[in-house]
């Protein structure tokens, strides 16, 4: 079982969503990656989320561009926390505002924790997933804290 399931709408999202997996692996959190689409493969998406939840996946990260319904579709299936990463599709409207609004504007009762657009958002999704898991894992919480301290030291060093 992987603690985090990373799902993306297309293989064209892979290079950006890699930042989430890299961050998680750096923090010692096991994750798995799937290309599944809310629109193109809805049944396979449902099967994966249901099966991953049964295997013990704790958090889902979902990245999609354009009409980015992937995170919302996953949140509709599971009550595990879902983090949405809006991506800039090749035909993006307003630099990715289309995906940002599609991901963030969930109806009351079915939340998606939406992070920033693109690669920074993907990296933050990895950190946020680790922070969620760290609420029940002191060693992981320590690694997340160390990463923050490393960042602060870099800034202070100029
Ligand atoms: C979305 O449409 C995907 O998440 C991707 O960001 C975008 C373009 O997908 P492709 O047409 O390249 O497969 O569903």
Which features would summarize this protein structure in a list?
single chain; 158 residues; alpha/beta; 50% helix; binds 5-O-phosphono-beta-D-ribofuranose
Layout of helices and strands:
Blueprint: E1 4-8, H1 14-26, E2 31-35, H2 42-55, E3 59-65, H3 70-77, E4 82-87, H4 97-104, E5 113-114, H5 118-134, H6 138-156
Parallel strand pairs: 1-2, 1-3, 3-4, 4-5
Helix pairs in contact: 1-5, 5-6
The protein binds 5-O-phosphono-beta-D-ribofuranose.
Structure, described:
It is a single chain. Strand 1, helix 1 and strand 2 form a beta-alpha-beta unit. The protein has helices spanning 14-26, 42-55, 70-77, 97-104, 118-134, 138-156, and strands spanning 4-8, 31-35, 59-65, 82-87, 113-114. The termini are far apart. The model has no long low-confidence stretch (mean pLDDT 98). The radius of gyration is 15 Å and the shape is globular. It is 50% helix and 16% strand. It is built from 6 helices and 5 strands, in the order βαβαβαβαβαα. By secondary structure, it is of the alpha/beta class. The structure holds 5-O-phosphono-beta-D-ribofuranose. 5-O-phosphono-beta-D-ribofuranose (RP5) binds at residues 9-10, 12-13, 37, 64-66, 87, 89.
Task: Give the gist of this structure.
The protein is 50% helix and 16% strand. With 158 residues, it is of the alpha/beta class.
What share of residues are in beta strands?
A: 15-25%
Fraction of helical residues: 40-55%
Strands side by side in the biggest sheet: 2-1-3-4-5
Q: Radius of gyration from the CA trace?
A: 15 Å
Number of strands: 5
Low-pLDDT runs of 5+ residues are none
Distance between the termini: 41 Å
* Number of helical stretches of at least 4 residues: 6
Sheet bearing the most strands, described?
5 strands, parallel
Order of helices and strands: EHEHEHEHEHH
Bound molecules: 5-O-phosphono-beta-D-ribofuranose
**Secondary structure category:** alpha/beta
The shape is: globular
Report mean pLDDT, rounded to a whole number. 98
